[in-house]
Design brief:
Elements lengths: L2 H6 L6 E6 L3 H12 L3 E7 L10 H4 L9 E2 L2 H5 L5 E4 L6 H9 L3 E4 L12 H11 L2 E4 L6 H11 L3 E13 L6 H7 L6 H4 L4 H20 L8 E9 L15 E12 L2 E11 L5 E2 L10 E9 L2 E5 L7 H6 L2 H19 L3 E2 L22
Parallel strand pairs: 1-2, 1-4, 2-3, 4-5, 5-6, 6-14, 7-10
Antiparallel strand pairs: 7-12, 8-9, 8-11, 9-10, 12-13
Helix pairs in contact: 2-12, 5-6, 7-10
The protein binds NADP nicotinamide-adenine-dinucleotide phosphate.
Amino acid sequence: MSAVMAETGETNVGYRVIQWATGNVGKEALRGILAHPDLELAGCWVHGDAKNGRDVGEILGGEPIGVRATSSVDDLLATDAHCVVYTPLLANVDEVLAIVRSGKNVVTPLGWFYPKSAPSADEVEAACQHAGVSVHGTGIHPGGITERLPLTIASMSRDIRHVRAEEFSDIRSYAAEFVVKEIMLFGKPPEVARESAMLDLLGKGFLQSVDMIADAIGVELDAERRTIHEMAVATAPIDTAFGPLDPGTVAAQRFTWQGTVGGTPVITARVNWLMGQNNLDPAWNFGPEGERFEVEIEGEPSVSATFHGLHPSEAAAGLERNPGLMATAMNCVNAVPYVVEARPGIRTYLDLPLVTGRADSSLRGGIR
Ligand SMILES: NC(=O)c1ccc[n+]([C@@H]2O[C@H](COP(=O)([O-])OP(=O)(O)OC[C@H]3O[C@@H](n4cnc5c(N)ncnc54)[C@H](OP(=O)(O)O)[C@@H]3O)[C@@H](O)[C@H]2O)c1
């Protein structure tokens, strides 16, 4: 691969890709890999025993495609592939290092967005340099909505004073029971949720986004980042896919991560996660715009953009296919050709050329 190719964004066809985990994001990534004209599915790692040895097509609810899923890390490390799309429940740095050392690039929504202060960054960077491959963190939030789109929009302004990326989502459409109940702590008493590890866990990603924006627009932030956790409780039972939330338990949460200058917020990343808009104390709703993502630049001029289409039409539909999770997966899958062609190392949005999707198969032709 030449540096020129990385800069121009020129890519090839036939990149062999291993999908690592088949949860919500992993299944959408598999569909994305199978639909992408430049990619071939080379293997698939699964955590659950019930999926071990099954054909990937059947895991997706369709016909067999001739690729069997496996729980054997060793088999996959020995498989000839250019890249792994890494989407398990939690990142395992040792596993990522093993994948890198086996000579495969990694694209993941689980971290490495801009990990300049992450404890594992130096080790992963060294492994990438040694193996001649790259690691790229992407997704929607953190990921594209949090930094790539704000930075793109920010090119239209001068004298930028504040950059904000904010999510407004109904979490009843997130089909991940363990994550929603045991990690996000919905349905727990407020005193339990107040001790939530989410500010820290999610902050590991969102604060990388804050750092990327600060460096890209040239801001020297205060040493301490500001984090805020707010919540509302249910005033009546609230139905969810995992059973009702009891009155008095946590049913809405807002997490905010900020970079400040002299104590004034300059960069804000925020999520508003509600279990519906009814029976909440304090009362809380999405407002007339409904579920959405917002990006806002305060400067000269101030510019904002609101993204619809990344949420399901209703919560139940989202449990089947969730557009936000599809978008997370596609940000990963579409990055693969560019990451394979990139210079070795941890490669962020600031390093890669313009990453984009591919046309429907019925429309393809011309220069890609
Ligand atoms: N950056 C972003 O914008 C963004 C957006 C959405 C999600 N995410 C992150 O992406 C990851 C995947 O999300 P998801 O919705 O796909 O999650 P998920 O559906 O709950 O689970 C992912 C998969 O992880 C595997 N798994 C389960 N238990 C495991 C364990 N103990 N150790 C290792 N793997 C285990 C399972 O794979 P098998 O089914 O194959 O056995 C499971 O299906 C999460 O960490 C999530 O936070 C990031």
